[in-house]
């Protein structure tokens, strides 16, 4: 009877330790996701300028084009606008890429950190 009681207590303690470890990892994941969101929220403003430039440029290009339905014209407009907007927003585009990389790395380090 004593061994049975000891075994039951051991099982209960093992389950409690496992459960608390699992909760800790869920809390850790949640914390790391919040850190990622905070980091990632720093770059969307920059991206808006690039997107606006791309939309505006593409609209102007299509309006000034003689054949709007020609797929090659649309493609040429897109390529020209992409180049134009990238050069106008070069620092922004590079910053955006760098920020995504940094945020992703920070998230992975956060998960590994105990």
Structure notes:
With 114 residues, the chain is mainly α. It has one domain (2-112). It has helices at 2-40, 44-64, 71-88, 90-112.
Our measurement of the CA-to-CA distance between the termini, rounded to an integer number of angstroms, reads 40 Å
Tally of discrete structural domains: 1
**Mean pLDDT, as a whole number?**
70
| Percentage of residues in DSSP E strands | under 5%
Report the uncertain regions: 1-22
Instruction: Supply Rg.
Output: 27 Å
The arrangement of helices and strands along the chain is: HHHH
- State the assembly state of the protein chains: single chain
How is this fold's topology laid out?
Blueprint: H1 2-40, H2 44-64, H3 71-88, H4 90-112
Short description:
With 114 residues, this protein is mostly helical. It has helices at residues 2-40, 44-64, 71-88, 90-112. The chain has one domain.
Feature tags:
114 residues; mainly alpha; elongated
């Amino acid at each position: 009877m004593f061994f049975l009681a000891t075994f039951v207590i051991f099982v209960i303690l093992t389950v409690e330790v496992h459960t608390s470890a699992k909760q800790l990892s869920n809390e850790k994941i949640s914390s790391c996701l919040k850190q990622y969101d905070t980091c990632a929220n720093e770059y969307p403003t920059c991206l808006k300028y690039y997107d606006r430039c791309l939309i505006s440029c593409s609209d102007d290009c299509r309006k000034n084009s003689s054949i709007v339905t020609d797929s090659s014209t649309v493609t040429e407009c897109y390529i020209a606008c992409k180049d134009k907007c990238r050069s106008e927003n070069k620092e922004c585009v590079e910053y955006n890429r760098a920020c995504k990389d940094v945020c992703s790395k920070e998230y992975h380090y956060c998960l590994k950190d105990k």
